Amino acid sequence: MRICIAQTRVRAAALEQNFAAMRSAIEKAQRDDSDLIVFPEMALPGYFLGDAWERPSFLKRCQDYVERIAALSNNIAVIFGSVGIDANSRNEDGRIRKYNAAFVAQNGTLLHNSSTNLPFWPKTLLPNYREFDDSRHFFDLRKLAIERNVSLENLLKPVALMKRDGSKVVVGIGLCEDAWDEDYSSKPYSILCQNEKRPDLLINLSCSPFTKGKQHKRRQLFSKKSNDLNLPIVYVNAVGSQNIGKTIFSFDGQSGIYSGDSFTPTAEAFVESIETISLTNPSTSPNASGSVASNQTDEVRLALESGLSFIRDEWGLEKVVIGVSGGIDSALSTVLHARVFGEKNITCINLPSKFNSQLTINAARSLATNINCSFASLSIEESVALTLRQLDEARLQGLPISTPLSTLVPENIQARDRGSRLIAGVASALGAIFPCNANKSEMTVGYSTLYGDHAGYLAPLGDLWKADVYDLCHHYNSVVYGREIIPSATLSVVPSAELSAQQDVTRGQGDPLYYPYHDALFRLWVEEWNRYDFESTLEAWENGTLSKILGTAAEQYLSNTFKTRDEFIKDLCRWWNAYVGMGAFKRVQAPPVLALTRRAFGFDHREAIGLHLARGK
Amino acid sequence: MRICIAQTRVRAAALEQNFAAMRSAIEKAQRDDSDLIVFPEMALPGYFLGDAWERPSFLKRCQDYVERIAALSNNIAVIFGSVGIDANSRNEDGRIRKYNAAFVAQNGTLLHNSSTNLPFWPKTLLPNYREFDDSRHFFDLRKLAIERNVSLENLLKPVALMKRDGSKVVVGIGLCEDAWDEDYSSKPYSILCQNEKRPDLLINLSCSPFTKGKQHKRRQLFSKKSNDLNLPIVYVNAVGSQNIGKTIFSFDGQSGIYSGDSFTPTAEAFVESIETISLTNPSTSPNASGSVASNQTDEVRLALESGLSFIRDEWGLEKVVIGVSGGIDSALSTVLHARVFGEKNITCINLPSKFNSQLTINAARSLATNINCSFASLSIEESVALTLRQLDEARLQGLPISTPLSTLVPENIQARDRGSRLIAGVASALGAIFPCNANKSEMTVGYSTLYGDHAGYLAPLGDLWKADVYDLCHHYNSVVYGREIIPSATLSVVPSAELSAQQDVTRGQGDPLYYPYHDALFRLWVEEWNRYDFESTLEAWENGTLSKILGTAAEQYLSNTFKTRDEFIKDLCRWWNAYVGMGAFKRVQAPPVLALTRRAFGFDHREAIGLHLARGK
């Protein structure tokens, strides 16, 4: 049996484009004598559509396109994901009933699902954690079983398809989460396999975003399932970029056939691919790679570059202005954007005040030279002085502005002057966008100025801890380019905002964070599946387990720095409150983040502002 | 039977504060000889906690406080909402199993729920629409029924409580959505009433945010249920403010007893109240009001002022700087803040450029005079000129900045100069916050400048259409104050950004929106339960139904303005694409919105950036 695995690029709500991609995939599969072509989950409408599912007119167009796909299924069986409508029933929100469903077409027409009496196969398990919101929009097979007062086994059965040679093949169809059944009391694939008509193969249609380590988990999970059920599993995942406003996800594909312990990939990660493969004798196509990349840092590099290039395409972006400080974050952002947008589309601007060292100013210029992009230097001194003069004027007009000003006031004036006045002004004049170069460490505790360095069209580094930023910079220099693209001064200078005389890098004065410790701490609060809070962190410190939990680099810092409970608590309280207080407040107004870990800020890190501030006792 | 209805102010995740409020309520109820005290849903932990539910240490503390509440239940039965933990089972996300639950305590101890074998009564129906995210965090009784392979009737039974006189009373307990069962196949209260041990009364614990018209709907729904089931329903809802980052909800309480068609309120809306009432002979307490306010505009005023004062308290805010343009939005924002924060804490600053008319400058000054708050005028001319000079300088350094600049460039420079340089600078120097004065019409289509007038700690008007803003301003002048607080010039001037010579209010030149038409149009896209999109709007225009759908004011504009299909489409396409494109992009970085309608931007309007752009064919 020949199966075409259509790892298509799925665009959110772009029915016409998705249909066109699917049509040409079907035509290729027909030319390649495929018996069956399988598309990803929600291949037609896209998956992360927010509340656009509530537009009846969009749903109607989805149905029209489903019919048009079905009409193409001559001499081939077509399985694809789309939204299934049951116009005669209501969802629990009172709107028209919708399913996340697989459609099956053959001989130019849709197959009817006699088990449910619907023209599609609904998803059974709806993920409702992380970035997933399925049960907000979709009804599912479990709810249908309750409503109809029947068992799930009655509704979930394999389907028989005709091969080109006229013989039949029985397939068990599931959608994404249906395979990730570990924590559910219902196991869809087991139910399918227990059916009297045992399937010859299983199919999983996915729309599963990339996050670090997920492919490893997928390999384990699908191999185990294939072994347990003693059947091959055809896994088809989308590529492309879909966002939920605050968080932008990249889809890595990684489609292929799982058969026992072996996985035969049919495509490169993050790349559209329409590849026919023999189920009985699968062989990897020349372009396919079994894993995302050679190592974890390169995996992240590939995900960043792929994600950013998807975004560039989706949003029709062309030119980029980057405020380069000579520091590590803006350097990485510049390299990334240069690789994706091309260096001729990059403009670096350096915006010194009297507090910026020649060291970092030179590093900024070197970076632009190394990358071969245009560069300008514009001072913020005159404007900052003007703003301070106007504060004096306001005082003279009677406003109770104290003098001298708190040091934070001129610091933030500088940051906003760079971000909102000059970078935004230059970008606007060039018809360009500009990124926010904040990393995840800074975003966690709001160590940035709103409307200043917090501003930008996207925070491409917003899901990278400070150590990840360094790793990637070294990786670009040593592996990707094999030469010094990011200046050594940038790599060696102490991380610093350079906004006051107290942040003088030439005297080694920098950020108030010791990243090897604080990153590990923040990760406990943000990324752990069972997240730590102020109290449990303190408890771990008190019972002596914290240093073990945080790892070696943090261990030393912990024992060297905090001699008393009060000292430990003071630091803990400062950063915990920054995380849940001002950090949360600033994240509400942060640019979108490109998701890389299993917990990026935004839709997968839902939070209230000012929740659970600690009082440090 | 005497029931104490504890309409407490519930603070998100503030266990200690919530516990203290509950303890003093129980003490009052005991003094008032109550047989039973009922608290809101999630009265102990708060409800909108984002993903803080994933912190095991927080859950453990919730359990500790549940025990502490139970210990207080001497001579009284206590029913309260909190998170129910089943540490031996998993949620479907693999985390510890949690329920949104009611706890029942008597004689100093928690009652055991023998139907479920859990020490609490779980919620059956979990809302998963609008701002609600219950099934992300909580297991429910329907899932438990499937898992245990029993019917819901086995798990959902009334509970018998002891009154002070030693007799028994049987109560059917439900949580919020359990009563809103219209679109669910399971009806919890009906199941409770069909039990062999028929309840004497029903109780509904709610944590139900205010939105326009909701109290009307509650009255209908609970009266109908009371009639249908022929039992009184004790309704207890929280007051206070809880946010989900982007969207801030106010809780209006409106607790009381539904008995057939009659509703006996026990409290003022939005006000904490611990009131004991006789179930058999209920009478309204002197402070209680049956409806939110006298009319719709006053209802919104009350909700705005209450919501804002909750936020002020929650976040510990004190001083406010407001950029006043002389226009209607900043005027309303100033009045609102003055009423909530006190006029002595308000500073108005007017920030003219050469494009601002004396008309609006004078109106801004009059407003500050009328309110009696401090005022300063600071020009942006010098800074804007400096920025333009620096763009020239960048051009001389080789950046391909075209000359002359597009008109949008200096317009946005002005807006950002006001917001991010001066208003933010003055606020920072005064230790104050500053609001974003954008209304819902502007927010819908992104008619504002990022880091300019889009900036602020909160958008208090972000859920008010332009017409609502006018209504409220007139209401303040004519009803609330009975004199001209908001200057008549502000009320009569054409709405305009005054950012160019083409936006000259003295020549009647203003915004590109005709609000009576465009607001009605935007409402179709944003607020309709079954939302319109580009295609269905066009279809309605084509088949002649649009003007009827949009109402009278829009009808005239429609017929006068668009003579051809192309003219109509051009305008439609412009604003639709602004809504789903740049508008969505800007909303990601918008300040939090105070929710007033049933669809505020943010968590109840989940959206992807750049989705479904129309091509205007």
Description:
Two copies of one chain form a homodimer. Chain A contains 20 helices and 19 strands. Chain A is an alpha/beta fold and 617 residues long. Chain A folds into three domains: 2-284, Carbon-nitrogen hydrolase (Nitrilase/N-carbamoyl-D-aminoacid amidohydrolase, 4-Layer Sandwich); 296-513, 3-Layer(aba) Sandwich (Rossmann fold); 514-617, no CATH class. In chain A, helix 1 runs parallel beside helix 2. The mean pLDDT of chain A is 95.
Describe, in short, the structure shown.
Chain A is an alpha/beta fold and 617 residues long.
What's the helix and strand layout?
The structure is a homodimer of 617-residue chains.
Chain A: E1 2-7, H1 15-31, E2 36-38, H2 56-70, E3 77-90, E4 96-106, E5 109-110, E6 121-122, H3 134-137, H4 141-148, H5 152-155, E7 159-162, E8 168-175, H6 188-193, E9 201-206, H7 214-229, E10 233-237, E11 239-244, E12 247-252, E13 256-259, E14 262-265, E15 273-278, H8 296-315, E16 320-323, H9 328-341, E17 346-350, H10 358-371, E18 374-377, H11 381-396, H12 408-430, H13 440-445, H14 466-480, H15 488-492, H16 515-526, H17 534-542, H18 546-550, H19 552-561, H20 565-588, E19 593-594
Parallel strand pairs in A: 1-2, 2-3, 8-9, 9-10, 12-19, 16-17, 17-18
Antiparallel strand pairs in A: 1-15, 3-4, 4-5, 4-6, 7-8, 10-13, 11-12, 13-14
Helix pairs in contact in A: 1-2, 8-9, 8-14, 9-10, 9-14, 11-12, 16-19, 17-20
